[in-house]
Amino acid sequence: MKHADIIQTLDLEQKCALLSGGTVFDTRTLPGKGIPSITLSDGPNGVRKQAGAADHLGLNPSVPATCFPTSATVANSWDPALGEAVGEAMGEEAAAQEVSVLLGPGLNIKRSPLCGRNFEYFSEDPYLAGKMAAGYVRGIQKNGIAACPKHFAVNSQELRRMASDSVVDERTLRELYLTGFEIVVKEAKPKTIMSSYNLVNGTYANENAHLLQDILRRDWGFDGAVVTDWGGSNDHALGVKNGSTLEMPFPGDDSVRELMKAVESGKISEHDVDARLDELLELVFDTKAAVEKAPRTFDAAAHHALARRAAAQSIVLLRNEGALLPLKKGEKIAVLGDFARTPRYQGAGSSAVNSIQVDSFLDCLTESGLTNVGYAQGFDRQGKADEDLKKEAVALAQNANVVLLCMGLDEIKESEGLDRMDMKLAQNQLDLLAAVAAVNPNVVVLLSAGSSLETPWLKDCKALVYGCLGGQAGAGALVDVLTGTVCPGGKLAETWANAYSDSPVKDHFAGEGRTVQYREGLYVGYRYFETAGRPVAFPFGYGLSYTTFAYKDLKATPEGVTLTVTNTGKCAGAEVVQLYVAKPDAKVFRPAQELKGFAKVWLEAGESKTVSIPLDDKAYRYWNVATDSWEVEGGSYQLRVGASSADIRLTAEVVVLGSGAPDPYQSVDLPHYRTGEITRVPDAEFAALLGRPIPEDKIRIDRNMTLGELGHGRSPLGWLVAAVLGLLLKRSIQRGKPDLNILFQYNMPLRALAKMTNGAISMGMVDGIVMEAQGFWIIGLLRVIVEAVKNIAQNGAMEKRLKNS
Hints:
The chain is an alpha/beta fold. It is 33% helix and 16% strand. The radius of gyration is 27 Å and the shape is globular. GO terms for molecular function: beta-glucosidase activity.
């Protein structure tokens, strides 16, 4: 232990107290023992340190900071070095605000396009997500503070996120949902990791020994601190035993007593407590020193310029019929759409940054050299039909050579706590687009959305520029690309399906029950569409440019490839060269091809460069459920180099020596998984893939019943609570303004009441509420009252002891 000298001076109560938060975003302090407090803060795309009263969801104001493009945006740059620059700037701002731990980046796999938090995540591909996240972590930690990659693991939806059980087979778990985290841990060495809310195969992630001990610490060598998501602790003692270091936010002293009782009863050992405390003290002392020596100011103008550069390099040109773009100087344009005036530049929820400044598209156009004939709002932002707005916009469109129509999802469509209902743009926006295209065919759509959309309306625009969610400087970045100041070089980090009905997870995403069955297995995103031969609107890795690139002279070995890339166009630009590995004759089923390397190369017009893309230990491996280890199937592999997953330019074959392991599925009947046709996998086949029966899916009246599920209990009081919450939620959604606080409460399990109320509610009181819900009305209420009195008395005594220690 690094801090045994301090730990041996503490009694059990003091040790246990330190393993949970002291406030919503601060750890506990014991000044008499020389142990200071540190601050943690949200930060996937900027620092969100709240000023004054703090709350988890970002409802109260926070200290101004730079709002960088979201992770979903920067992922389209395919540039880990750019991610590292953004991370370094965020780390600098965090230290300036005396924040020791920045809670990000998020790198969960985009299993479904409807996940409400996809804007916070990088990709559907674990290799790309891992490489980008590793860049962020290296940048954030350059000045000594800690990054906290999240949410570990298999956290792919917002509905019932605190009580859902992700049912996934071990191979899929390892290859898809953990590989990105593995890359981050091994290549960037984060000081902290955040565990996710959900269960993974029946055990909460925060107390899951398989995740936290077997894989994270033993297999990957992680020696940092594991932090719970806010309110994500189920059984604090089991969390400590199995590798969870710090319980957040401030669960109160009942949590301390719970941990002490677990030690005294032998449920866990004091050695478990000491091990976690050693991890925490290392984090506290290490990052506290970094914060203390960091300056309290930063160059806001430089960070704004970086945010603009990051957004510009991440913009994806999806359509450019007739080379309409870039626009020539003096081009006569009309600007339409509410987003031109009030940009949609970040997501809602705990990642929302109080931006230092926010550029609007209209303001940025003033220095573009374009001739703007006017602006019209065009549509109601929340989707309400308005003929007058549409008519005004159509009239203006007739006075311009080119129409710039700013479309997108409104703020509530993409939010923490709420999954999207569909992949569609609001109908009033589509009606405007069609009406404008009828009078002026030269329409450029500028699209603001943090995840993929259906695009049947593509015929109504000649150019489509995907800005994603570009942060506070995203509007200027769009102008840079439109005018050719920046040549677009972004590539999609996720597949855009033709329709949500094509999604491989549509029948097993955000359903009614508590379990979430990952029946699609390995076939997420392009892995499904390409294996099953399904057409898409835009493939993974796709993006146009104002110039063109030629590939030639591919040379390949099992360790990687080299090739020559030439800019064959008339302007300088960047190309993302992508390397996919395929084994068409595989005996162990696998996707048709998988991304295993990439490189972004900048080329002047006419310039050629040799590009090298190495392959690492993840290039050929698969997880063998029979040997419980990584194995390699020997034989011939294709190394495919392309400009997207669907645009393979060069192919070479290499022979790879295998590990000689037997096919784990040789005697298992898995016809759908062998073909990739996984949208209708029978129960028996999914059970065979799991290697165990599919868990039953039923609501239980226990500590993990959500407030929204109380209607399934036996208490009239519970029915009333569920009905009121349901009504409030329904009304807020109908208004187009879902209440994040109501959303959080509706999906919150009862045990979280003891974790999210600053000690006002104890777990004993929760057990009384459970009894009430089970139908023991009077006894349940009496227990709540007795436990409440006991909690107040015990808390007062403990706080007095801790303050005097």
